[in-house]
Structure formats: C-alpha cells, structure tokens
Amino acid sequence: MIELGQGSLTIVAVIGAIAVAALAFAVVLRRQVLATDEGTPAMKEIAGAIQEGAKAYLTRQFRTLAIFAVIVFGLLFLLPAEPEIKLGRAIAFLFGAGFSAAIGYLGMSLAVKANVRVAAAATRPGGRSEGARIAFRTGGVVGMAVVGLGLLGAAGVVLVYRGEAPAVLEGFGFGAALLAMFMRVGGGIFTKAADVGADLVGKVEQGIPEDDPRNAATIADNVGDNVGDCAGMAADLFESYAVMLVASLILGKAAMGEQGLVLPLIITAIGALVAVLGVLTTRVRGEESGLRAIYRGFYVAAVVGVLLAALATFVYLPGTFADVPGISEALAGQPGDPRLIVSAAVLLGIVLAGVILWLTGYYTGTTSRPTLHVARTSRTGAATVVLSGIGVGLESAVFTAGIIAAAICGAFLLAGGSLSLALFLVALAGCGLLTTVGVIVAMDTFGPVSDNAQGIAEMSGDVDAAGAQVLTDLDAVGNTTKAITKGIAIATAVLAATALFGSYREAVDVAMGEIAEAGTQVAGGIVGAMVAYDITSPITLVGVILGGATVFLFSGLAIDAVTRAAGAIVFEVRRQFREMPGIMTGETRPEYGKVVDICTRDSLRELATPGLLAASAPIAVGFGLGVGPLAGFLAGAIGTGVLMAVFLANSGGAWDNAKKLVEDGLHGGKGSEAHAATVIGDTVGDPFKDTAGPAINPLIKVMNLVSVLIAPAVVQMSVPADTNHALRIGLALVAAAVALGAVLASRLRAVRAERDDERDDSRTAAGVL
Amino acid sequence: MIELGQGSLTIVAVIGAIAVAALAFAVVLRRQVLATDEGTPAMKEIAGAIQEGAKAYLTRQFRTLAIFAVIVFGLLFLLPAEPEIKLGRAIAFLFGAGFSAAIGYLGMSLAVKANVRVAAAATRPGGRSEGARIAFRTGGVVGMAVVGLGLLGAAGVVLVYRGEAPAVLEGFGFGAALLAMFMRVGGGIFTKAADVGADLVGKVEQGIPEDDPRNAATIADNVGDNVGDCAGMAADLFESYAVMLVASLILGKAAMGEQGLVLPLIITAIGALVAVLGVLTTRVRGEESGLRAIYRGFYVAAVVGVLLAALATFVYLPGTFADVPGISEALAGQPGDPRLIVSAAVLLGIVLAGVILWLTGYYTGTTSRPTLHVARTSRTGAATVVLSGIGVGLESAVFTAGIIAAAICGAFLLAGGSLSLALFLVALAGCGLLTTVGVIVAMDTFGPVSDNAQGIAEMSGDVDAAGAQVLTDLDAVGNTTKAITKGIAIATAVLAATALFGSYREAVDVAMGEIAEAGTQVAGGIVGAMVAYDITSPITLVGVILGGATVFLFSGLAIDAVTRAAGAIVFEVRRQFREMPGIMTGETRPEYGKVVDICTRDSLRELATPGLLAASAPIAVGFGLGVGPLAGFLAGAIGTGVLMAVFLANSGGAWDNAKKLVEDGLHGGKGSEAHAATVIGDTVGDPFKDTAGPAINPLIKVMNLVSVLIAPAVVQMSVPADTNHALRIGLALVAAAVALGAVLASRLRAVRAERDDERDDSRTAAGVL
C-alpha cells in the first residue's frame, strides 16, 4: 500500500470534518423547513396520501434494486484485481449504491413534507417569497446532503486506502451511478406514466382540469414528482458528484502524485462551503421572479467558489511542476505555473456551469424568445408546436454540447500537449463545475416541490386565485431550474467520461504490461486493431456507431415504457369512472392507491430493460470487439448522449413552459385550441424531459465505469497469442443476448399490453361503460 | 502518370460501353412510359401546372447553385496538389455537379409526365398493375440514368487519368455530393413547406380535404413531390453511387494496384446489367400488393447480381494475394484466396441491402406491427401518436445502424487484420450494395409519382372510387419504398464514409511525408495530439461531439426552415381565401402560381444555411483542431448521422402510413378524432422524413470529401515547427464565422417571419378576414 504523507492525511481529515459539517447544516435547514405551517386539513390529507405512495414506491424499488446490487457485488469479484482491492472495491460499490439510495430517499421524504408547506405559504400575504424560500431551502437540504455524503465517502476511502484509493473509488462511483440510473429510469417512468395517463383520461377524454381530485391518477402524478424528479434527480446528482470525484482522484494521482490526489478533495470541499452561502443568500426580493433570486444565489456561490479555489490552489501547490512531490516523469519538465493552470481549469468549470445555466434559461424560460416562439406556433395547431419544440431542443443541444466541447478544448490547451495533464485538468474543470452542485441540487428540488404544491392547492381547493398564481409562477420557475440541472448534470457526465478515458487507458496499459512481463506472446492481426485506439479504423467506427445506437435505444425504450405504463393507468382510471359513477359527481372518492400500485408495479418492471441494456452493451462490445472499439463505443455514447440528453430536456422544458404561457392567457388562454395544442406538446415532452433525457447522464457513467472495470479482463482474454477466443466471444454473445433479450421482453410486454387494450375496448363496446 | 495495362484499359472501355447501353435502355423505357394514355383534359391541365412549377423551380435552383459551384471550383485551386491533378479535379467536380443536376432534372421531367399517366391508368380496368407498371418504369428510367451516368463518369476519368484517376475522382464525387445536398435540402424544404402549409390552412383551418382544388397550395404540394422526393432523391442516389465508386477506386488502387482499381467498376457494371433485369421483372401479378412485386424484382436482381459478381471476380482475380500484379507490400503476404474474400465482401453488401429493405418495410409498412401500433395509439390522441412514432423511429434506427455496423465488422474480419484490405472490402461491400441501386432508384421514384397521381385524381375529380382506392394503395406502397431508399442511401453513406477514412489517412500521410522529406522540423506538444487519431484523447472526443452536433444542427435547421416557409404559405393561402371569396364556393380558381413562387423563393433562401454549415464545419474543425480531431468529427457525424437519418425517415414513414390506415377505416376512419391525431403525426413527420432525414446522407459525404480535400493543407499549416499558427487559426475562425453567421441569418429570418406573422394577425383581428 502506497502511504500518504501526514500533511495530506490531516487535510483529508479536515475535509471529512467539512463533510460532516455540511450534513449538520442540512439537518438545521431541514428543521427550518419543517417548522413552517402545514396548511389546512384538506391539504394535509392530500399530502399524507402523497407521502404514503412515495414511501411505498421507494421501499419496493429499493427491495428490487437490492437484488441487482447483490448480483453486481458478486460479479465484481470475478474481475481481475488484487484480492485486497477486489474486496475494497466491492464494499465501496455497496457504499456508493447505499449513499445514492439514501440521498434519494432523503430528498423524497423531505419534499413530500415541504410541498404542502409551500402550498400553505402561498395562501398567506408575502406568499411569493415565503413559498420560494421553503421550496429552495428544501432543495438546500438535499444539496448539502449530496455534497456532504459525496465528500465523506471520497475522504473516507482515501483515509482508509491511501494511495490505493483510486481503484477502490471506481467501485464507489460505479455503485452510485448504477443505483442512480435505476432510480432515474424507474422514477422517471413512474412520474410520467402517472402524468400522461392522468392527462389522457382526465383532460382528453373527460374534459376535467389537471390535478382535479376526481381523477384517480392525480395522487400518483404527485407521488411521481417526488420519486422521479426529486429522489431520482438527487441520486443522479450525487452520482455525478461521486463519479467526478473518482475520476479526479484517479487522474490526479497519476499526474501529480499525492497532491494531485488531495487537490480535487480541497476544491470540492470549497464547493460545500459556498453551497451554504448560495443557499443562505437565495431570497426573493419584492416582486422579482423566483428565477432571478436563484440565479443570484448561484452567481454569488460561483464567484466566491472561484476565488476560494484559486486561493487554496496557490497555498497548496508549488510554483513549478518540477517541485510537485511525486510528480509523474512525463510532467516533471512541464513548463508553466501549476497554480495558475489548475486555477484556470477550475475557473473553466465554474464558467461552464454559469453559461449552461444562462443558455438553458434562455431556451426554456417563459420570458425568452424560444419558448415564446413555441407558444406562438400553437396557433397553427399541435403539429407546429411539436416541430418548433423539436427545433428549439436540437438547437439548444448543439450550443450546449458546443460549449462543453469548448471547455474541454480549453483544458486541453492549458495542458500544452501533455495528455495526462489534459485529462486531469478536464477532471478539475469538472470539480469546478461541482463547486456549484449544492446550489444546483437546491434549484432542482425546487421543481418537484413547487409542482406538488400547485397540485395540492388545486386538489384541496383551499387556495385563492392570488395564491394559485403564486404557485403557477413558482412551478414555471421549477420547469426552468429542472432543465438547468439536467444541463449541468450532462456536462458533468461529459467531463467525467472524458477524464475516465485516462483511467481506462491506464487499466488497459497495466493489463498489457502484465502480459508482456509474464513473457506471453502477444497476438497480431485482428487483435492489433482490437487494442488500437485508432478512430479511422473501421472497427473503432463500428464502436462509435454502436455507442450512439445504445443511447438511441435506451431513449426509445424509456419513452415506450412510459407510453405503455400510461396505457395501464388509462384503463384503471377509466374503470373507476365506469364502475363508480359517484366519482364524476364528486360523491365518491376515487381509489387513488390502486393507481399508485399500478405505477409502482409497472415502473419496477419496466426499469429492468434499459438497465440491463446499459450494463451489458459495453460488455458485449468490449469482449466482442476489443478495448479499442470499446473506447470508440464510449466516445459515440458520449457524443450522441450529450446531444440527446440536452435535446430531450430542453424541448420538454420549452413545451411545458409554452403551455404555461398559453394558460396564462397568451394566444387564447386556457380552453382555447392553442391550449389544446400546447397540452399535446407538453405530453410529448413529458417522457422526453423527465424519463429518457435525464437518465442518459447516469447511463453514460455506468457504461464508462463498466468499461473501466472490464478492460483488464478484455485484454487478458484477447491479447495473448495462445488465448482461447471462444470464451471471450462466448461472453460477448451472452452479454448481447442479455441486452437483446431485455429488449425482446419489453416488446412482448408491449404486445400483451395491446391485447389487454383490445379487451378493454371490447368491454367498452359491449356497453359496460 | 502511372500507366494502366492494355487489358485493364479494354475492360474499362467495355464498362464505358455498358454505361452507354444502360443510358440507351433508359431512353427505351422512357418512350414506353410516354406512350401511355395521358388522361382526361382536367387531369392534363393539372399536370401541366405541376410541370410548369417544377421546371421553374429547378431552373431557378440551378441558377443559384451554379454560383456556388463556380465559387467552389475556384476554391479547389487553392488546395495543395500537383497542377495537373488540381485542374483535373476541378473539372471533374464540375462534371460531378453537372451529372447530379442532370439526373435530378431528368427525374423530375419524366415524373411530371408519368404522374398523370398513372392517374389515367387507375381509371381503367386492370388499373392496379398498369399503374404500378408505369410508376415503376418511370423509376426505371431514372435508375438506369443514375447507373449509366455514374459508371460513365468513373470509367471516363479512369480512361483519361489512368493511375492518377483516384485523386481526380475526389472532385467528381465532391461535385456530385455537394449538388445533391443542396438539391435535397432545397427540394425538401419546398415539398414540405407546401405540404405542411397546405395542410395547416386546408385541413386545420378550413376543414377541406387534402388535395382539394380550392386550396391554393395544392399545386405547390404536388410540384414539391417532384422537385424534392424525385429530383432531390435521384441526385442523392447518383451522388451515393459516385462517391462509393470513388472510394472504392481509391482504396482498390492503394490495396491491390491496377486490378483493385478496375474491380469496383466491374462489380458496378454488373449492377447496371441486373438493374435492367430488375426493372423488367417487376410486374404486379393479379391482386398482390405493389410492394410484393417490387420486392420480387429487387430479390431477383440481387441474387443474379451476387452470382455474376462472384463469377467475374473468379475470372478476373488470381488465386492468391501474392499473384495480384502491383499488390501493396503490406498485402503481398496476406493469406487466403482474394477471389473468395472479394466475393464474400460483395455478397455482404447485397445481403445488407436486402436486410435494410426488409427491416424498413417491417417498420413502416401498413401491414406490420409497428405502423399498426402507431395507428392504434391514435385512439388516445395526437401526443401518443407522436410518442409512439418516435419510439418506432428510434428502435428502427438502432437496428438499421446495428446491421450496417455488422456488415462493416464482417468486412473487417474478412481482411484478417489488414487495415488497407479492410477498407477496400468495406468499399466493395458498398459496391455490392450499389448493384441494387438501379432497382432502388426505380422504387423510390415510384413514391412521388404515385403520390402525385393521387393528387391529380383527387383534384380533377375524374377518378371513381375504385380508381381512387388503387391510387391510395400505390401511394402507401410509395411511402414504404421511399423509406427503404433512405435506408439504403444512408447505408451507402456509412460504408463510403468508412472507406474514405482510408483516403483521408493517405492524404495526411503523403503531406506528412513531404514535410519530413523537405527536412522541416516537426512540431511536438499540442500538434502531436492534433495529428493523432487517438479516440481516447480529449481533443478527439471534442471532434466526435462536434460531428454529432453538426448533424443535430443541420437537422434542426432543416426542420425549422420548413416550419418557417410553411408559415409564409399559410399567409398566402389565407390571403387568397380572404380576398377571393369565390374560391371557397368553387367559382374562382385560386392563384396556384403565387404559392409555387413563394415556395421557390423561400426554399432557395433557406437552403443556404444548412449548405454553408456542412461545407464550413469540417474546415473550422480541421484547421482549428487538427487532422486527428477532424477524423473524430467525421466519426461523430457518421455515428450520429446514420442514427438520426434512419430515425427521421422511419418515424416519418410510420406516421404517414398510420394515417393511411386510419383513413382506410381503422379506429374510426376519416374525420374521426383518431384521424385528426394521425394527421398531426403525419405533419410532424413531413419535415422529418422528406427534408432533414434524407439530407443527412449527402451531408455526411460532403463533410467527408471536404475533409479529404483539406487534409493536406491542414497538415502543411500545422505540423512544421516553424509554422505560423495564426493563419491556420484565422482560417478556422473564418469558417466558424461562416457557419455561425449562416445560422444567425436564419434566426434573423425567423424573427422577421414572426413579425410578418403578427402583422397578419392584426389584420385578421381587424376583421379583414
């Protein structure tokens, strides 16, 4: 075990203490939120139903995912590594997964208490700023928990494993990412199945408004906001945090030794401090929009973060690369001042966060041209709404991807041609981006809380027109902040994935070295191309195509799962209307719980397919085609993934807010044909922005980490001249069969769903309805 | 100049003769088509208007494009090459562009005469098979012309330039691709602006049926079918043919010398022969569907093509690689029988064509599950139609991309680890694919001709119910064949682009060799990464992201252009209804010509932005980041491009046919809410399948050939240690400014369009309407 110096250990211990302090601050904030008024009895009753549903879902989800986690835990032991690392990595995997789940649960459990408090606040004078404050502080709790647990986990692993920490941390990051992906997909399907299903029967068939208590799916819809947008996104951001840290520590150690390992922890610890500042300074002043206040909090945190990070860097690092203790040979002669270069990389990351914030706000905000344009196209019907939203989404994806690419270019140029430094700087830019993550999580949680508050207000009927307007405004702000978070999350995915190429190469190089050392002959021919990272080779290009295809398939599966699950909701709600005529007249209370149960059952069933695809696709490509094409696969997945994720998130955000604009009176207002057109756009956008789009972020990370983990095994099974290729190809075929089998199973479910559908039809035709 | 042997020259001359014979056969077929009955006077009048509009548009388009062509012709002289090659390449560019334009014009000019003949045939007994025959033979003329001119051009260049032909052929391919891209984009915008605009005012606002003569946009809609789906696609397929041949000749010469240069010509000449067979054997028997007959023709041609190609290969090539005269050193020791390996590669390409045909037919045909599923979702409204169509599109894109990737893998495995042979085999697989192109073009042209025939029938009122049903069936077949052609076209794009990486590398290597020979020092540091093809380098990854982003931006621009141009049509049609009340009652004939003029003006204006983007993006990336990232850019564009192209084409095809299914009586039939929902889906799909999607194919080729052409200049300006990087970066910035400026100009047009729109609104509000 490589030892760390006493000074470094002290710093890491201090960072651990900061992590604990961040968690303590989260507890304080939580008390503040819970101390506010809980609202009228009607509100409390509705909120109670939502709480119950959300807890029931998450508990069942965790039970299902625990099985997955145990299987993966076992599989991790099959991969080649030193026994000690193997065990540590597997345990770290469980911790990563556990923390991810805990953050999700925590986010949900507070959000379901905060929603009713925001609704209650809106009924009081000064409700605007008070409501925004509660919603934002709720987010603050989750944000501080993300930062605190992420930092605690990383610092803990470093304290225990010292110089061996990076390999163990891969397990931590993988656990966090895998669980987050499942939570994102499962929660995303739940929330949008309920939402779309509720709209299809409620708005389309029965002509009753959104969140009308007569609709049996409304409670499920609100539960969905909490398990998808809140728990799912919190786990996702935790995972972004964890994986980014993992990548930085690995690359930092490789490039700059001990100091490189500790530096990223220092930067993110600063992020924890400025997050406190950001949460405390976010306050809506007078009549200003909630978005403005949130932006202010973000920018304050960002500017202070840059200054503190630069200060820490200048104190911690020496003035030349040669003076960095334990610097890699390649970097010892690197010109330039490492303090300046590192500070510039961190700045790059923070600026990137700011630009994404602005760009996403521009594309999805209710006051800027793109959303107004989408709203405008509602006058020529739903088709133009859909097309204009797609246009907005595509354009915003290009510019967002472009500036992320520019940030990577910047880090690359700072490194002056050194690949290992460039990768570390990309990771540091990611850490810079992460210094804002506390505020970002707070912003994001704002979304589902205010959405829920509006639902509770509508269902209880206890909020007057002025209060309702306050909640509508908050909800619109939430739509934009949710889109922003997705932009930031995907940016961390790209940076982390780019940086992880460094650990990928290292893993491959180590494995190649071992083969050479053992004196085994290395095979030539096709194997040569299998281990080359040559982008112009046809087989690498095949990897790129398959990587992009996986993103497309994953998105398609997620969207289809929502459509299918929504169909089941439609039958159930229809059945309730049919069998209980009292519902429509308001005499009978619909059976909300049944719909929640169906959502729970279906989303747990549907999350397996995309999950298995994500885990097995890189295994199939890696063992089937080699580590070179697998690198191509990752590059293709990153390139297509970032574009697709932003496209889906922003077109969805623009449609949602375009609908809000029309509901606020533009182009005919509620009930007009323009409104109907924007409702269609919004429904199309639902699975885009809340199921498929955000799940691409953990997808990329899961595929990346799976690749890093299997790379040594692939090399061992393909490179020696006397190797038995049958086993390797057999493994690839099994993985491909798992992926295709999962897709096929989902197709069969679709066919079964259509059959049920026909049965429902014939019953309706027989006059039962 | 490297000489070719007498034997080779004789073979090439024979191939030239086959090309001329193919053109002669086209003339014969054309006569047959024109000999059929022209229909009633009303039909003739409508067809006359369509002819006039289509000719006027193409003429104006060519005038605009001639300016572009002349500019590019000039720019080609600025790129480094030997003077003789420079001139030859520039002239070949003009020929390529000219042939592309000629094919487009020819396709259009015959289609506008065939449409009315198909409509007339439908009124007679046995109309089904007679109508299908005329439509398919019209396609046959275009198909034979594509094959004949492509082969003639390539054979001509080889005869004149002998061993230097490959470098000159780059110009030929580039000209063909550039012109085809503009024709695809311009025609695509025209056809869909008219179609969408007509639908929005006609179906949505006024509630009159499609192709109703009272709608001023109907003639423009039918003109659009001819200039977009027919002329655009014909030029596009010609371009596919030309670029694939170019890639094969270049790689064949590099890998296997003289025989490698001639072999691809032999394979494609066989394609010309079997195309004749395919066209002649396609005949609808009794009550079978038109699609079945077309499939039969295709499969007959494919099987005969495989057999003839294998026979020719066995006659032409020796039994070992070492015996191939002029074989490259690297391949002299290659094990295996070249005759078997080459035949297998050709077979791979033909099988790929067959699988794509089947797969596309499955996803978009009216009798298979996916389209039936989309039609089914119409019962829950437009949102689910849009979502299910997107799901179908995404899934089909993944499987199509997957099998193209599998074909590349197959070629790679056949090559047994030799990169240069692998690239040549990929190109030969492409040639195999192309042996079916004659039949494919015929299938494609079938689409607009039958679509037009239906329009003419509807407008003239001279076709009875039975005849109308015949035409509806033919039109549905056309929707599927159009989707199939797009699948095949994008497959050729991927294969050609993969193969062109070979010429790209060669161009770079030659330029690097020249620098080394001149004794100039080679710069290290950042430049090292700029010339490495390392997929794991951050800067290459930036290239991949930017490549994907270009495809997204291009697609978004094309879709937006359609929405915007459709808006202008909406105003004009509204104005005519407002100012001429006699239109609605049928007393006044609308001014069809005005709408055609607007479509012409707008699509010529709108085609510049995506065109400039395609040409300048690789220049910006290449000069800005280097040849390594440029290779990444191409890989990203190919990977994202193939997925996006198939997604857009097939979701559009599925929506169109789902609408047809509902119109045929499913789920409530015409006029039901389900019908309205599928109309929305179809309108969303219009710019997907006929504007953005198919233009991605030439886009990829244009970007590829631009990259091949600029690669030597990039190396010369970046690699020498004493180079002045300012000029290189300046060039990159200019190119980036051109691309962004074009995007900005299109945004400004959008703002202006919205302002016009508001003016129109206020006029409507003032009660003028």
UniProtKB/TrEMBL annotation, chains A, B:
Pfam families: H_PPase
GO CC terms: endomembrane system; plasma membrane
One MF annotation (Gene Ontology) recorded for this entry: magnesium ion binding
EC numbers: 7.1.3.1
UniProt KW Transmembrane keyword: yes
Coiled coil: none
Required cofactor names: Mg(2+)
Keyword Ion transport in record: yes
Ranges annotated as spanning the membrane: 6-29, 62-81, 87-107, 134-161, 167-185, 261-281, 293-317, 340-364, 385-415, 421-442, 487-504, 539-559, 607-625, 631-650, 699-719, 725-745
Enzyme class: translocase
Catalyzed reactions per annotation: diphosphate + H2O + H(+)(in) = 2 phosphate + 2 H(+)(out)
InterPro entries: PPase-energised_H-pump (IPR004131)
Localization terms from the record: Cell membrane; Endomembrane system
Site feature (Determinant of potassium independence) residues: 482
Keywords in alphabetical order: Cell membrane, Hydrogen ion transport, Ion transport, Magnesium, Membrane, Translocase, Transmembrane, Transmembrane helix, Transport
Membrane topology summary: Multi-pass membrane protein
Principal localisation: membrane
PANTHER family the record matches: K(+)-INSENSITIVE PYROPHOSPHATE-ENERGIZED PROTON PUMP
Function statement: Proton pump that utilizes the energy of pyrophosphate hydrolysis as the driving force for proton movement across the membrane. Generates a proton motive force.
Subunit structure: Homodimer.
Similarity comment: Belongs to the H(+)-translocating pyrophosphatase (TC 3.A.10) family. K(+)-insensitive subfamily.
Protein name: K(+)-insensitive pyrophosphate-energized proton pump
Organism annotation: Georgenia muralis
Gene for this chain: hppA
